[in-house]
Amino acid sequence: MQPHNLRKVGLKVTLPRLRVLEVLGESEEKHLTADDVYRALIDSGEDIGLATVYRVLNQFEAAGLVVKHNFEGGQAFYELDGGEHHDHMICVETGKVIEFVSPDIERLQSEIADKHGFQLEDHSLVMYVRPKK
Amino acid sequence: MQPHNLRKVGLKVTLPRLRVLEVLGESEEKHLTADDVYRALIDSGEDIGLATVYRVLNQFEAAGLVVKHNFEGGQAFYELDGGEHHDHMICVETGKVIEFVSPDIERLQSEIADKHGFQLEDHSLVMYVRPKK
DNA sequence: GCGAGTTTGAAGATGATTTGCATATTGTCA
DNA sequence: TGACAATATGCAAATCATCTTCAAACTCGC
Question: In what order do the strands lie in the sheet with B118-131?
């Protein structure tokens, strides 16, 4: 992720912002809480404040660099915006998050919105699943 | 909503519980926050505590009497469980919540979960829409 | 009506997220 | 490249939604 990306969205290039982007981009798990990001940085020796992480994540969301998910459980999860929309499947046993795309479902959604006199602006689909026996 | 319903799910019939059920059942808007319920009761002269509202709503959810939705925005919304599952469409301009059912989407979801080796346990689909111009 | 066991209201505790503010950084321009 | 205005940061304190604690007030079966 180049500084360029930050400039492009009108944000000054600062160390905290670069670090947060790095963590989001290099983490194994793509869906992180603000605290996950904070700890990753503290653990790697950075001197950053939790408040800054929140502020930066919010700015990134507003800028469209990351997507914020409000799954259940009180805390928000942030994910680097890969450009293409996708939905999530969460295993209720392991907590694992799986991403998927379904053009069919997307199409049906637009049709339904349309039928009600609306146009689809955005959507959030989360499936809670359990491993098949 | 008869006291009977409360007994059936193993809850003692108490005034606060009856009142909360009433508010949920008689409100124009079907999706209420704990605070909405609390205020409705306070405004109508009841002497109830916010903590009790939260407690009661949680018990109702556990008992299957109400469904809890985690839309965006930090606060949870509660809705009387009408028995049949449905999804939501929220107008980003007016905040209005519209319910709908789509067997097609439900079926696709099961298929997708299945394809990934899981079985669908539950799901949450929220569409953010805007009135057609 | 009584009493064991449950429920309630009020206040304080939590956990997540935000804000206020003095200090530190960034980007710009000379 | 050095000075500056604008912006960002870290810390601590403030918010917000929600939960827990605990003494006092109910409910229900007897």
Answer: A97-100, A87-91, A118-131, B118-131, B87-91, B97-100
- Interface contact flag, B131 A118, Cβ < 8 Å: yes
Tens digit of pLDDT for each residue in A28-86? Answer: 999 999 999 999 999 999 999 999 999 999 999 999 999 999 887 789 999 999 888 89
| Continuous H helices in chain B | 3-8, 15-26, 34-43, 50-63, 103-115
* Protein-to-nucleotide distance from the CA of A72 to the C1' of C4, whole angstroms: 38
Four-CA torsion A12, A14, A17, A20, nearest 10 degrees: 160
Q: Could you tell me whether strands B87-91 and B118-131 are parallel, antiparallel, or unpaired per DSSP bridges?
A: parallel
Domains of chain A with bracketed CATH: 3-80 (1.10.10.10), 87-129 (3.30.1490.190)
A110 and B CB contact within 8 Å = no
Query: Which of B58, B93, B116 should one mutate to test binding to chain A, selecting the residue with the greatest count of A CBs within 10 A?
Result: B116
